[in-house]
Amino acid sequence: MVDSLHIGIFQYDICWKDITANFRKIESLLAGLKELPDILFLPEMYSTGFVMEPDKLDHKLLTGQPSKQLTLSDKYRLAIMGSLVFPEENHYYNRMVLSDAQGSMDFYDKRHLFMEENKRGLFKAGAKRKTFLVRGVEIMPQICYDLRFPVWSRNNLNYQVLVYSANWPEVRQEVWDTLLRARAIENQCYVVGINRVGVDGNGISYKGGSVVYSPKGESMLNIEDEENYSSITISLSSLSAFREKFPVYKDADSFTID
Predict the structure, then answer these.
(1) Which domains does the chain have, with CATH numbers?
(2) 244 tagged catalytic
């Protein structure tokens, strides 16, 4: 395992239902960076916004999104991770996709669908907890509403970084920040929360607040209420030392998740 991971967060105003425009925005960011991160984190449904009528979007464009993301990873030689609307077997998934510079891909499907996602029965919930391996670092992917369900992200020392990709509305901003910090403390891990800004096509306002928390719950990075990119390098040796010094996990309850 490497000792550090350079992570980048792109918090932006997602162009409503415009896949092409959003991919252009991401590539424009990458092309202009003087120093590229090891991994770039993007918000939930980063290419469309939080759409609840995916059947009205171009099917070919939706299915082509992972390939477009992989192309960016290959061109700029970095890993990219964010959630996309993806059609599969007569359903749609809110799917976190990881792509890397070696041409590999993996995905996690959102477990806890928000009420609006369930309303028309088009979206299907995921059933598997996953971890992604990036440069020797284990990352657990989670999506927005998953944040409210701590059992699903329970750490059995099988990951170092917990990531939440979200479209978290401004009216619940304090909840967002409080829960992210709690997840870092209870799981003794780094927590990365990526949100969007702006107003979406449904008139919902987003205030950003993308953050990185240390395993002690300390704020390491905070992008407030504007479109912006920021990066930070996290130390894995510091994480290991903290866990050894204060091994809370040894007293944790044992249980299984259905």
Answers:
(1) 4-251 (3.60.110.10)
(2) no
Residue 93 amino acid letter: Y
pLDDT in tens, 88-120: 988 999 999 999 999 999 999 999 999 877 777
Query: 144-150 long-range CB contacts below 8 Å, 24 or more apart?
Result: 144/44, 144/83, 144/110, 144/114, 144/168, 145/110, 145/112, 145/113, 145/114, 146/110, 146/111, 146/112, 147/176, 147/179, 147/180, 147/183, 147/193, 148/112, 148/179, 149/111, 149/112, 150/182, 150/183, 150/186
Tell me the C-alpha distance between 122 and 92, whole Å. Answer: 6
| Catalytic pick among 68, 110, 124, 207 | 110
DSSP 3-state assignment of 203? Answer: coil
Give the whole-angstrom CA distance, residue 223 versus residue 208. Answer: 7
Alpha-carbon span 37 to 24, nearest angstrom: 18
Catalytic residue among 15, 17, 25, 144: 144
Sheet holding 190-194, edge to edge: 132-134, 137-143, 161-165, 190-194, 210-213, 219-223
Decide if 110 is catalytic.
yes
Catalytic residue among 44, 68, 124, 189: 44
CA angle (123, 125, 131) in 5-degree steps: 130
pLDDT digits (tens, 9 = 90+) for 112-154: 999 877 777 899 999 999 999 999 999 999 999 999 999 999 9
